[in-house]
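Our working data are protein records whose layout never changes between entries. An example says more than a description, so a record of this kind follows.
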Amino acid sequence: MAEFKIGRLDGQPPRVRNVPIAVTPEGFWCCPSQAALQKTAKSPNQQGRPRGGASPAPTISSEKRAQSTPTRSRTHSDEQVCPPANAVAAPDPPKVVPAPAPEKRPKQHKISVGFGQLGTSDLKVVLHGMEGVAVKMIVHKSILAENSTFFADRISRQSPVSCIEVPDCEDVEIYVETVGLMYCKDVKQRLIKQNVPRVLRILKVAESLGFRACITSCLDYLEAVPWVGDEEENVVSSIRQLHGEDHRANPLLRRVTSDTLTNPPNDTLAHIIELVLKSSEDRGRREMKSLVLKLFKESSNGSSANGSSADSSCITTLYGCFQNCLDSLLALSRQAAGADELAGEEESSSAGSKEQAFRKIGLEADNLLWLAEILSERHAADELTAIWASQTELAAELHPRIPVMHRHLVSCVTARLLVAVGKGEALPSRETRRRLLDVWLPPLMDDYRWLQH
């Protein structure tokens, strides 16, 4: 228990009151909340009031007694008091204006709080808050100067100094708690059980004191916890009011601000598609392709009708990925065809490279089929049909040299484009449609039996 004294205006000895203060392992004495301070301030006034009992009997004024007389006597008295008509009216007596009562000065309530080892303390910090509340903190110069740039500057300017006063303190309770955090070894551990509004109040006081360790811990806390309701707006407002630029505020602002300038949507889409196309794990590829394809199908309804620039940029990205996969398929098919010609010379070395090339051909063909599906769903496969119809080398020379179990996905691309033309998803010219049948219909018929499986 700690004692504090309340001064009185009537000159009588001050009254000593006990305030409960908890002691932590670091020696931190928790200051009572603002509500407790206001309750303590109101308690002396409440003691002066009567606690109960019979109330005094009401007194009846002369006016009320006059009103209780009969009407006849009241009329008779009015006739007697009424002056004659030719009499001069007497002047009204001067009105006495009561002097204004002197304003009562608010009583000042002082509380003393100690930190650490009180026997070695060498500094007093007095906080003057609202409603006459004053808190005296018994602290140590070395700890405050080490953790706070504000106190380090005040101590260096007024050296030797034994007392520092902080006038017009807006939040006395949080100020005391923030100073107490300077005595804690792990500030993050103290903030774990706090809520977001209280951490924002601590962050504001810590920023005014230049308490960098507390600022970093508050930002780490705000980055880790979820924000509910209006907390997001309050967090963003508090973060933007920080004066320093090295307080790791950018990760917090990225949660609510768009990074369009540094990372355009087109780059993000290209990165996602690239990750899917370069994946070599079968299950992961299937799940990611189905998910991305579903997203494209859901977004194609509104974007195709609007014809926005974002949609055209997306189509350009898809065409670029299709061309890259097609170039890779041509290179791998040429490599597999060349390995087939050299099979008689180096059978042991060419067998492994051929199988690896066949597997890569299957992956690239699967990528082409996935991209053709996306472009067909978005009704943007007109140019894709022309590009695929111009692949004479792939269809006539390289395709027959690849085993059907590895090349059948190439024929699936042809089948998907033919379905797109039939359903109206792709509207190529008449020459393009004829070229597509002339180039890819024979390979499609050769692989038809495999496609049935």
Q: What stands out?
A: Confidence is low (pLDDT under 50) at residues 1-5, 47-90, 258-262.
